[in-house]
Design a protein that fits this description.
- GO terms for molecular function: alpha-galactosidase activity.
- This is Alpha-galactosidase.
- Its EC number is 3.2.1.22.
- It catalyses: Hydrolysis of terminal, non-reducing alpha-D-galactose residues in alpha-D-galactosides, including galactose oligosaccharides, galactomannans and galactolipids.
- This protein has 3 domains: 106 residues, Glycoprotein, Type 4 Pilin (2-Layer Sandwich), CATH 3.30.700; 269 residues, TIM Barrel (Alpha-Beta Barrel), CATH 3.20.20.70; 77 residues, Golgi alpha-mannosidase II (Immunoglobulin-like).
- The chain is 23% helix and 29% strand.
- The protein contains 12 helices and 28 strands.
- Strand 4 and strand 5 form a beta hairpin.
- The longest helix has 22 residues.
């Protein structure tokens, strides 16, 4: 989901006559009318002085953005234009062209920013109009350590709404999912968090309190419903003004939101950088803004006696695992969003599994949610998905419709022997020990002295693989169990691994 609202770099073109005259004609203060919801440009200031042209354009998503590299380009009266860029802090998005042209009464902005076409007129503004659109800024806390909350001693397990439902989520669906987790036995297998991702937020009241939207009439009642079934409720927000789907973020209301969620009975927060990257795009500011919420959650939890699992979602920037615990975090995303395809899952799971020594009881590398059961991969590919996540000691957050799982999906998600690998109390992250010709061998040491071993086939044809037990430090004749076949196997067994598949073993010397 975070891919929707990445860095916005926009070249903006201003048509006009000769260079100096055109620049002078377009200097001043401007207010936009009825701009598209993303990124909702509200006003613009253009100035010309001895240092040349400079300006600022303001967006409801990203606040005041400087017009970078502002200059007049083009030849002839019809070709003259003023070009600049804006940057919301993400280095991946390519420049996008926009045009701001005179329309007889003011100017009109047209073009496209990221996924949304722009067409909005602007008129010259009075000082009062400009002041009414001032974008507030707030100080960040000085660096400080947020004490651990004692939670997530093993990787969190549960369900999250985004992968299947995106923002089309509501109270009834969440209740139905909770019931399905109980009915299917997945709650008892360890999947206890029921997490509402983006799309629940409504408007703030006059007192600043954020209310849920009409799809969620009573969040406390929903939390009570979930708790009554032996489950826990999770929620979602952003440190920016807008969430990834355009709902209200926690910008300027961090402590207030943490208290509100505590009063509702929330047990888990996913805090997604989203529009916050326009404000917080250095290592220092990103760490500070996540520290701010970590401290707010700790204070609210202390007041209510309900500590909150804190999930940092800033896409692995600035070596987040090195400081995630220090800001109160229990898990931190190591990558961008997963998609329901083997290519996406494999790129994340095999190649972007975070820094291993950052993982352990209380804090976990998070390669994003599970796609199992959503239909974009084969059963063998989903088996690889779960096996990789278990070997990596990753959180297991289902992203499917738990109300309508097939037997295959339930068997994949509910395999107690594989879950035991993921939840092993030692908390060591598995690593590849051999990669060759599309075949990989991964190992993970476990608390009882045994070793989990994954034989992965990344090719599109079946391959034959064996485990070299002496090389893995397990001697010549370890006791070996196949965790997907649920049977013991001979140490020297030859395994046929399906295309994009896995054989997951547990070996004891």
């Amino acid at each position: 989901m975070n891919q929707l609202f990445r860095r916005v770099l926009a070249g903006i073109l201003l048509a006009g006559p000769a260079t100096a005259a055109m620049a002078a004609d377009l200097t001043g203060d401007w207010v936009f009318q009825a701009a598209p919801s993303f990124p909702r440009f509200s006003k613009m200031v253009i100035r010309q002085d001895a240092g040349g042209l400079h300006g600022t354009i303001t967006s409801e998503w990203y606040g005041d953005l400087p017009m970078l590299d502002l200059k007049v380009v083009g030849e002839g009266p019809a070709g003259k234009r003023l070009v600049f860029h804006i940057d919301n802090g993400n280095p991946k998005l390519k420049p996008l062209d926009l045009t701001l042209a005179p329309n007889g009464q003011g100017v009109t902005l047209t073009g496209q920013v990221w996924y949304e076409k722009q067409e909005a007129s602007a008129h010259r503004a009075t000082a009062a109009e400009m002041a009414a659109l001032d974008f507030p800024t707030y100080p960040l806390p000085a660096p400080a350590h947020v004490p651990g909350n004692g939670l997530a001693r093993t990787p969190p397990m549960g369900w999250s709404s985004w992968n299947k439902f995106a923002e089309a989520i509501d109270d009834k669906t969440v209740r139905d999912i909770a019931d399905a987790l109980v009915r299917s036995g997945l709650r008892d297998a360890g999947y206890v968090y029921v997490n509402i991702d983006d799309g629940w937020q409504g408007e703030r009241g006059p007192d600043g309190v954020l209310h849920p939207n009409a799809k969620f009439p009573d969040m406390k009642a929903l939390a009570d419903y979930v708790h009554a079934r032996g489950l826990k409720l999770g929620i979602y927000s952003s440190p920016g003004p807008k969430s990834c789907a355009g709902y209200a973020g926690s910008y300027g209301h961090v402590e207030q939101d943490a208290r509100t969620w505590a009063e509702w009975g929330v047990d888990y927060l996913k805090y997604d950088l989203c529009s916050g990257e326009g404000f917080y795009h250095t290592a220092e500011t990103v760490q500070a803004v996540y520290q701010q919420m970590g401290a707010a959650l700790a204070a609210a939890g202390a007041a209510t006696g309900r500590p909150v699992v804190y999930s940092l979602c800033e896409y692995g920037r600035f070596d987040v695992g090195a400081w995630g615990r220090d800001v109160g975090g229990n898990l931190w995303r190591t990558t961008g969003d997963i998609e329901d395809s083997y290519a996406s899952m494999a790129a994340i799971g095999f190649d972007k599994n975070g820094v291993p020594h950052h993982t352990g009881p209380g804090g976990w590398n998070d390669p994003d949610m599970l796609e199992v059961g959503n239909g974009g991969m084969t059963t063998e590919e989903y088996r690889t998905h779960i096996s990789l996540w278990a070997l990596m000691a990753a959180p297991l957050l289902m992203g499917n419709d738990a109300r309508s799982m097939t037997k295959d999906t339930l068997a994949l998600l509910g395999n107690a022997e594989v879950i035991a690998i993921d939840q092993d109390p030692l908390g060591r992250q598995g690593l590849p020990v051999r990669k060759r010709d599309g075949m990989e061998v991964w190992t993970r040491p476990l608390a009882d002295g045994s070793v989990a071993v994954g034989l992965f086939n990344r090719t599109d044809k079946p391959v034959v693989m064996t485990a070299d037990w002496p090389a893995l430090g397990l001697g010549d004749h370890p006791s070996v169990r196949d965790l997907w076949a649920h049977r013991s196997v001979a140490p020297r067994a030859v395994h046929t691994v399906p295309a994009h598949g896995v054989v997951l073993l547990r070996a004891t010397r």
